[in-house]
Design a protein that fits this description.
Elements lengths: L1 E5 L2 E10 L2 H16 L5 E7 L3 E4 L12 H6 L3 E4 L6 E4 L3 E7 L7 H18 L5 E3 L2 E6 L2 E11 L2 E9 L23 H5 L5 H15 L7
Parallel strand pairs: 2-3, 4-5
Antiparallel strand pairs: 1-2, 3-7, 4-6, 7-11, 8-9, 9-10, 10-11
Helix pairs in contact: 3-5
Length: about 220
């Protein structure tokens, strides 16, 4: 874990490694409660999850192509959560980032745009042209979705975040309706570049762009 200062506050960088989604959800909740109580610092959390399908507040059984028992038989966890959005998938090899931060601008659209632009800038570092779509959460490359987005806010403290496909297989996405879009195609950075991505390098690039986007400054 490392820490970056932003004036009188600080940004903690934590890497939880491969962790069950339910446990990561509990830890996020604990961190949000601490921030609401005036404890702790803003934090940027990196994780990977075992294969899991998360169902946002608006998700229904119609977002799953198979009955729940089929997911269980294949070892895929189903998790209902408190973020916005519908269904998305997590797999090992995917870069998942959870900013637990107090929004400096009390503007959800600004925060979403800044966070997704961080992803676009990371992709640009790999010479991949990512872009946003008006009114649709995520990042796309040549018509295929490469990054999912979903957040929760409690008194302007954020949780959840983004899931950027790097080296994951993408097989789980075929079992769901990704983000409510039946015709949505998905891709990964590894697929686009036809090589395995160094996840540690991708994390480093994400931190650098996040600090620029949200005005965090490293101590000299």
């Amino acid at each position: 874990m490392s820490s970056i200062n932003q004036n009188t506050t600080s940004l903690d960088i934590e890497d939880w490694g491969l962790i069950d989604y339910s446990r990561a959800f509990e830890r996020q909740t604990e961190m949000v409660q601490a921030r609401l109580a005036g404890r702790g610092s803003d934090a940027l959390i990196f994780v990977e999850h075992p294969t899991t399908v998360t169902l946002g507040r608006r998700a229904t059984q119609a977002d799953l192509h198979f009955p729940e028992n089929v997911f269980a038989e294949r070892g895929i966890a189903l998790q209902e959560i408190n973020r916005g959005g519908l269904a998305t998938a997590h797999e090992p090899g995917q870069l998942v980032v959870y900013p637990i931060v107090e929004l400096k601008q009390k503007d959800l659209r600004w925060y979403a745009n800044q966070l997704l632009t961080v992803v676009v800038n990371v992709l640009a570092d790999y010479a991949v042209d990512g872009y946003l779509k008006d009114g649709e959460p995520g990042v796309w490359v040549d018509g295929r979705k490469i990054c999912s987005f979903g957040i929760a806010l409690k008194k302007w403290i954020s949780s959840h975040g983004i899931a950027l496909n790097l080296n994951n297989s993408l097989e789980t996405f075929a079992m769901i309706v990704p983000c409510g879009r039946p015709d949505e195609m998905v891709t990964s950075l590894g697929h686009e570049l036809k090589r395995s991505i160094d996840i540690a390098e991708a994390k480093m690039r994400f931190v650098e762009h996040f600090c620029v986007a949200f005005d965090y400054h490293k101590k000299l």
